[in-house]
# Entry
Amino acid sequence: MNLPRQNFDAYVFSKQPGYDEPTFRKEFAKAMALKTVVIYCYDPRVVDIPAAVAREFGEVHPGDIITDAQGNKIATTRSLFEVVVAGGRAIDALRSVTVAQHLFGIKNVVIVHHTYCGATSFTTDGIIDAHKHEHDADISAIYERESISISDFETSLKHDTRLMRESKGTPQHVNIYGYLYDIDTDELSLVVEDKGLIPA
# Structure
């Protein structure tokens, strides 16, 4: 069923009567108890990564949806939010972390790469060459080379945690972690721990 086009604005918070951004931001943060953002791969075999990270950090996942008296979904008890991207690479998640911080105020960013990942099955040069020959497109300048494929897990996690730390959209107080997830044992191995600065 399609909604009438003229009603779309009714679903946009910033277009509601009396909207005040600072006030709304405070209320929105209360409705979502976000503390940790986990970035991981879209491989269906790793669907349990958020649960593993939740156990590691004592977070609530999946949590419950809270509704008001009319049955409208207004909040959640979940404290861990997911960003799902190819290979779990940080470059694809930078904007999401910036938005999460702005809306909720986060404490941790957890970047997870996993064993037998598809991103380890090709090289950076290989995918660039393939796009030239198969799609007549030069992608060599679109992405930084170090973020395209994974040739070594320790290197990729160190690169991604550093990329996240150096992003102006990542507050300095946020803790950043890099983990390797074993798809067969459901175990997380800590590779990088970058604690944030304690606010003065």
Summary: Helices lie at 21-31, 49-57, 94-104, 124-135, 153-166. The mean pLDDT is 92. The first strand starts at residue 36 and ends at 40.
